[in-house]
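Feature request, filed as a ticket because there's no other form

It would be nice if the structure record came with a short human-readable summary line next to the tokens. Right now we just get the raw output. Example of a typical job, pasted below so the devs can see what we mean:
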Amino acid sequence: MSETVHHQKQRGLGHVFAAASYSLGGARRLWGETAFRHELLVYAILNIVYLAIGASFFIFFAGLILFLVLVAMEALNTAVEEIVDRISPEFSVVARHAKDLGSFAVFCLLLANGALFFYALYLAFLAPLPV
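Raw output as currently delivered:
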């Protein structure tokens, strides 16, 4: 059974604090997702590898941006899954498609993160040395 919560719309600085509170709630909810915790662990490992191979600032920065977009997409995917499960608890082809599309979006960002990793390895070990 869902809870209905009524709240007053905040204005000014109160709106900023309310938005931050909602974002923290979303972060707490996302922490409950095993996939997110795995992605966070892999991001930490990638940064250790980047340090070990002497990756450039660009690689670290691009990695951070890609990771943040991945986290945002993971949050949206989780939101889609929760909405679909709430609206359509029984099997539905449309519900399955919505979940599959969210999962595919996350997968595309995982591929982008992997591509950056292999690019960093290429630069570190295979790229021609400057003359």
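Something like this underneath would help us a lot:
The helical segments are 13-31, 34-53, 57-87, 93-125.
The two ends are 68 Å apart (CA to CA).
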